[in-house]
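Entry 14. Structure prediction run on the chain below.
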Amino acid sequence: MKLVTVYQAFNPADAGLVRSRLEAAGFHPFVAHETSALSMDGYALAAGGILVQVAETEAADARAFLTSSVALPDEPEPE
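Output returned:
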């Protein structure tokens, strides 16, 4: 299974939020470089960020979900 990056973050909180949203929507995300980014200051930037990835077959739908303004049932509507 080939993984495709659908989101890049420079702090673990952003990556975790995106991972959680994708999981709640039924996707199967994987977060890469998170541990490395936490081990040294500035390493997230040097490593190219913390990557939220999904299977290649889910990538297009995951990107569309992340760019849509549709809230999940327990999220407030966007303004």
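Residues 3-67 form one domain.
Filed with the rest of this week's runs.
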